[in-house]
Structures are given as structure tokens and as C-alpha cells.
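Hey,
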Amino acid sequence: MGKINNYTVSSTPNPGDKILCSDANTGDTKNITPQGIIDLERSSKIYRAYIKQTLTNPPDATLIAGNTITGTWSYDNVGSYLFTSNGAFENVKTSCIISVPGSLDIGFEFYVNNNDSVYLNSFLSSVSSDGIISDLYIEIMTHDI
């Protein structure tokens, strides 16, 4: 194992400064820059919005600040809506959080369709249904793993 020297760090870090860390897979000691940590954190991307949908219209989104995924909603079929974002779902793990109203028999299904799109399907009493999405909070996250 290498020797770690003590030294006083200036109040303003230099961009090239290194942080000592350990590889979680191998246990090897490595160095990473502060920018490397920021880039690693930024490898996760997010889309957050409140959506509502009526008749056979695509969902209308009210975006929440801080999104790193952009895209558009379209209507596909009864209770089926497509969110499209060019290349956003390629070679990543994707997850979704949806706020489900507790007082109604409403359900949702979310899945990745391809590299560019995901589906959100809505159900009322287990039947595909339009017009039941009203101020629904949705959060779609991608993670490079």
C-alpha cells in the first residue's frame, strides 16, 4: 500500500486536485478528481413533471425545474401514452415513480419501448382507460450502470 502524505489544502481547490478512493469492485486504491465525481453523479438523468390527459389527447406536462431529460408525450391507444426522448433510454437502466391517487381504483404500467421511448399505460378498474390522468406526478430516471 502506498504512503498518504498529510498536507494543508488551500481554501480554493485546484481543478486537477485528486481525491483518494477505493474501487468498489476490486478494492484497488484509485484517485478521482472532483469533476470526476460530478460527472459520475450526472450520469443519472431525470424527467419530472405533473401530467394530465383528456379524451384522446396526448398528456399535457407541467415540467418541474432541473430536468436533464427532455421529450414529448403522444397518445398511442386507449390508456396508452408514449414519452419520446431521442436516445435517452439507450444502454441505461430506467426507473419510474408515479403518484397514484389512493381513493380510486387506478393503476399504471410503465416500460421501456426502445432506445428513444417509454410507455405509460393507465387503467381504471383494470381496464385501459383515457382521461383518468389528472395532475399525476411522474419521475423518469435513467442510470448508467
